[in-house]
Farnesyl diphosphate synthase
Amino acid sequence: MDTVSGAATRLLFPDWMRGVQGRVETALARQLPAAEAIPARLHQAMRYATLNGGKRVRPLLVFAAGELSEAPLPRLEVAACAVELIHSYSLVHDDMPCMDDDVLRRGRPTCHVEYDEATALLVGDSLQSLAFEILARADFADGPRQLEMLALLARASGSCGMAGGQAIDLAAVGRTLDQPELELMHALKTGALIRAAVLLGGLCGTALGADERDSLDRFAKRAGLLFQVVDDILDCTASTVTLGKTAGKDAAAAKPTYVSLMGLERAREFAADLGGQALAALSSFGERSRRLVELTDFITQRKF
Ligand code: GRG
């Protein structure tokens, strides 16, 4: 099987990133139902919500973690698509009037604005089902590993993961949370899927040892929190045009964030600290973790 080739490992990070993003875009377009397949409006809306947008950070994490275990590229591609389908579903539902009620996502009208609320609800439901369907296909991986990966993604997405974090988030509006409460909310809402992306990538290749799995998990948790702290900082420092989504929403909605909890400067220091902890967790992997190291820097320094 096609694994990460020597040529790929020599690519500069921006070229590697563009390569993975392009590969994932093509794979998603292939995995999604055709736009003209019945029910065409639902399938068009699913493609609208998933294709042509987004940084694809979670797929990049799958591929980067796959380099630790010399994972076959076709398997990484499927795992990356599954995680991105779950992420796309969460954004569609999060933008709906019953949740964050937003009109702009990835620089375009949100799914319920472009289509309608009932369609957006079904888009989220269908993207979630498709994520599990593609992981469950017979040629994806050997049985026990496939079950482990399915369970991992299911738990990360559900009430003890992303959906649970969203419930805590909705209940926290207008309240003051202390740091452990904020951390739990984000570990579930944003962190669980990022952690799943990293662990799935690690599971795609030759089995990692117990110590390696622990180190990877430590990295994944720090990276998930780092992503969110940077997101909070960008929400109050970047423009709507740059972000492609409505800036300043957290403060306007009286949402607890790292910036509201600790102020902008301390939030920046906290992000730098988390980045350092994430990198420290990778130290035992040496050169194999190069892409994860580069991605951590990308997440820390991202501008949108
Ligand atoms: C509706 C079950 C359910 C969950 C929603 C992920 C989420 C939970 C809500 C999204 C709201 C939000 C802005 C969270 C902050 C972190 C985050 C997930 C940002 C968006 O992810 P990016 O920046 O987006 O990776 P792109 O568009 O680049 O894919």
About this structure: The longest strand covers residues 104-105.
